[in-house]
Amino acid sequence: MARTTPLAPMIGAGPSTTAVRSPKTAELVAGTLRRMVVDGKLNEGDFLPNEAELMAHFGVSRPTLREAVRVLESERLVEVRRGSRTGARVRVPGPEIVARPAGLLLELSGATIADVMTARSGIEPMAVRLLTESGNAAAFDELEQTLDEHVAHSWQSGRLAETTGDFHRRMVELSGNATLTIMAGMLHEITVRHTAFAMKESNPPSKADYEKLMRSYRRLVQLMRSGDGAAAEAHWRKHLDTARALLLQGLETVKVRDVMG
């Protein structure tokens, strides 16, 4: 159940002895509240302390406080339901918060799909090595289950791009590296859209292609279970290089903006 969080235990009991007088007061207040989220003092689903408590602590007016909350809302760190008496609720964002702006920047820069796929080839092999060396049996089981229940037969349903894209992203997430996870999340939609386009318009996979793909995925999980990080990384780098060559065949100069529409 969501809870409204008292302010005093987190910042210090009692009102501030010195009110904030900076011209950027709202940004300073927003920064303090943002830090509470980062430090885990405010968690997903918590409500911010009530307005009266926040105003007293920071020594600010209601308009200034509401401006600070709007800053956090624009960052998608809080959700405000207009007319609700419960106030602003903390929403911890995932990679999707940067995926759309990142995609737009790639479009504006004239980046090609080849650029994106090359970047993915740098991200995923490292994630594979980290996951392999962690020896996380539960993660390996999850990936195997994803292949059996999510990816299997998706070639027939026409959803191979989406299901394999989910496998790639989840694999990076399971590596435990937050930076690689965010980067993979940023590129996820772009790579899935391009893969779907390439499979449909230019290089539709045959049943033999699909079976070869599944063997490569299962070999990856097998290598990760063995604990051989170098072998798993090398296998996945080769897999991505092969996939990139196939998916870019005849589409080498396609730009991100052409895929995103």
UniProtKB/TrEMBL annotation:
Keyword Kinase assigned: no
A Pfam family per the record: GntR
Gene3D superfamilies (UniProt xref): GntR ligand-binding domain-like, Winged helix-like DNA-binding domain superfamily/Winged helix DNA-binding domain
Species the sequence originates in: Mycolicibacterium doricum
Protein name listed in UniProt: GntR family transcriptional regulator
Domain HTH gntR-type, chain residue ranges per copy: 23-93
Entries under InterPro entries matching the protein: GntR_C (IPR011711), TF_FadR/GntR_C (IPR008920), Tscrpt_reg_HTH_GntR (IPR000524), WH-like_DNA-bd_sf (IPR036388), WH_DNA-bd_sf (IPR036390)
Molecular function terms from GO: DNA binding; DNA-binding transcription factor activity
Keywords for the protein's UniProt record, in alphabetical order: DNA-binding, Transcription, Transcription regulation
TM stretches of this protein: none
